[in-house]
UniProtKB/TrEMBL annotation:
Protein name (database record): N-acetyltransferase domain-containing protein
Transmembrane parts of this sequence: none
Domain N-acetyltransferase: 14-175
Coiled coil location: none
Length: 228
């Protein structure tokens, strides 16, 4: 294993390229390394066959390589979605709306803290056109994941139970030309311990717009026109 750079170097010197089918072993090894020790309700373990299908055309996988030889981070942009994973109806989007999913990312443990998670998000955004709606899911306990997504223009639109009944935020990034959705009413901050209340408000049209002031809390904005 190589040593990570000093904080001043950040991610400079890394080589970014799309993963190919022959990179499957490296991708699978990094996936399992990145989730080692994490509880299953926080991060979903993926089967090798799913990772292989992504490299064979179901998606685009962007990788960061150290010295062109060591895969130290990757992010998935999935285009071929299962009907059960399609949020168009839930978001009241037309059937023809182009969608893509940020379907997982991995960073080698010794490379965490250098901004690679957010870099992977921006890299994947850059691989879509201006009309694509992007979405992702994140466990409420996985604060690093949804903090980074919120920082890149995503909003929490729903709280769902997936992957065997585990809580997941549904985060959505609308096309760049979409008008901003704002409200004059005061936002509300709720901790992840109050998931039932969060779920109720999100179902009423509230949106998670930013991390709250307290660790583990989410700032929710009322729908436009809501008097508060």
């Amino acid at each position: 294993m190589s040593s990570p750079p000093t904080p001043l170097l950040r991610t400079s010197g890394l080589h970014w390229r799309l993963l190919q089918p022959q990179d499957l072993d490296a991708m699978e090894a990094l996936h399992h390394l990145s989730i080692a020790g994490l509880p299953p309700h926080t991060v979903k373990a993926e089967a090798r066959t799913f990772l292989q299908s992504l490299l064979q055309g179901r998606g685009t996988v962007i990788g960061a390589w150290h010295h062109h030889t060591e895969l130290i981070a990757y992010g998935v942009l999935q285009h071929d979605l299962l009907p059960t994973d399609d949020p168009r109806e839930h978001l009241q989007l037309p059937p023809q709306q182009t969608l893509a999913k940020l379907a997982g990312a991995a960073v080698a443990p010794q490379w965490r803290g250098y901004g690679l998670q957010r870099a992977l998000i921006t890299q994947r955004i850059g691989h879509t056109n201006s009309t694509t709606v992007l979405f992702a899911t994140a466990a409420p306990e996985n604060t690093v994941s949804w903090h980074n997504l919120l920082g890149c223009g995503f909003r929490v639109r729903a709280l769902e139970y997936r992957y065997g009944g585990f809580a997941r935020y549904l985060l959505v990034r609308l096309p760049s030309h979409a008008p901003p959705q704002t409200s004059d009413a005061s936002p509300l901050e709720l901790h992840i311990d109050a998931l039932a209340q969060q779920q109720t408000l999100l179902a009423q049209g509230w949106q998670g717009i930013a991390p709250g002031t307290l660790p583990g809390s989410l700032r929710l904005q009322p729908p436009t026109g809501n008097p508060g």
